[in-house]
Amino acid sequence: MLGLIDNRSAKKWLTDNGIPIKKIGGKNVVDKFTFEFKRQQLVVEDLKKSYPNNWFEIYDANTEDKGMVQAIRELYPNLDLIKKTSKNRIKKYIK
Question: What domain of life does the native source organism fall in (predicted)?
């Protein structure tokens, strides 16, 4: 699914991304949801860099699994940004 040449590369990618590998019946397996969720997170991070104002609409329109869309929305909530002014003394953007 990752398009990698060998199993070692796949195991390294899984380990680097915090996806646990389990042995069942002598075979290495990973949870499908955990794997796909991490892949979608990487897609979202790229979308957020390229389209910071409407990344979620683009992601939602191109993702068939609406459960995954909802999970991503929970992980990346919509933020209403407030700019710093001299009156409110906010140092960073906040919700």
Answer: Bacteria
Taking CA atoms, 40 is separated from 23, 60, 65, 83, 90, in Å, by 24, 11, 11, 30, 32
In terms of phi and psi (left: phi > 0; alpha: psi -120 to 50; beta: otherwise), the region of 83 is beta
Length in residues, the chain: 95
pLDDT digits (tens, 9 = 90+) for 1-17: 777 778 888 889 889 99
H helix intervals, 1-95? 7-16, 32-50, 55-61, 66-75
From residue 8, give the alpha-carbon distance in Å to each of 14, 26, 78: 10, 17, 37
Q: Which helix (H) or strand (E) holds 24?
A: strand 22-24
**Cα–Cα distance list, 46 to 38, 52, 62, 73 (Å):** 13, 10, 14, 15
Q: Exposed/middle/buried for 59, CB within 10 Å: 0-12, 13-18, 19+?
A: buried
